[in-house]
Amino acid sequence: MRSRQRENQPKVSVIVPTYKRNEELARAIESVVNQTYNDWELIVINDDPETDIGDILPADNRITHLQHEENKGAPVARNNGILESNGEYIALLDDDDKWKPIKLELQIDRLDQLGEDFGLIYTGRDIIQDSGNVETFIPDKEGWVHKDLLHQNFIPSETPLIRRECFSCVGLFDPAFQSEQDFDLWLRIANKYKIGAVHESLAVSYKNHENRISTNQERKYHGRKQLLRKHRSSFESNSIALSKQQRRVGLAAVRSGRTLEGATQLMCSFRRDPRNVSLLVYLTMCLFPYPMQERLFKFRDRIIQQYLS
């Protein structure tokens, strides 16, 4: 995929899709403007035809605003931004997250040092919960990490810096995904390129459980099921990785009201990894009515939050 030919092409194109989050978007844009590295362009894609974001965009000729006439979803918004971009590198940022000021500078220095067989570099992040508790993630995996990614998506969506050529090689975001579209893209890139990391927390993610797609169980279910279907042959190369993905699909199925399908996926997961006794707990929960299941899941979530705090 070639960049659009313009004078003074920037080194980095920052892509920010947005939908009904003006206040959070202003914070995200400010974190880009405040970067210590200045050779960038910012493309903001408004996926809400009913909301005007013009008033919150700074007067900066490096910032471009794309307006969708109808809601098309985050994958299409990101793709449109990438296709409009000019940079050698593509940086992704969600509208409700932000970067620390030195993020781009450290990533570009690191990626410039690595060979061209490295297609993506990611960083650590701070995760701020609704309660105000902060959990910090620091990367520890680099190189050919495709096999590691099959077990867990450890690349935070607001941190990657990606060589433009990667999109020509593996394609853009898959618009068919309701969720997990970032995981799908990372798997495709990691199958063709090495992955690099900056071992510092350089982004901030806000876990607003009322508004994020990640808390929508219906979208979770469809995204996880599609991911497993699309990358089935890769997951089947490792029985534990396949078990983990079947567990993720099973839990999303149960929490979206598909108890029988969820129990089937959880049983398949247990057969491949019988040492994971937590699967027996989830299978037992499937015997209860759906309202009781949800109360048990919420109790589990509260325990996890207390542990993290």
Automatic annotation (TrEMBL):
Alphabetized UniProt keyword annotations: Transferase
InterPro entries in UniProt: Glyco_trans_2-like, Glycosyltransf_2, Nucleotide-diphossugar_trans
Occurrences of domain Glycosyltransferase 2-like (ranges): 13-118
GO molecular function terms noted in the UniProt entry: transferase activity
Record carries keyword Transferase: yes
Transferase among keywords: yes
PANTHER family documented for this protein: GLYCOSYLTRANSFERASE, GLYCOSYLTRANSFERASE TAGX-RELATED
Name of the protein in its database record: Glycosyltransferase
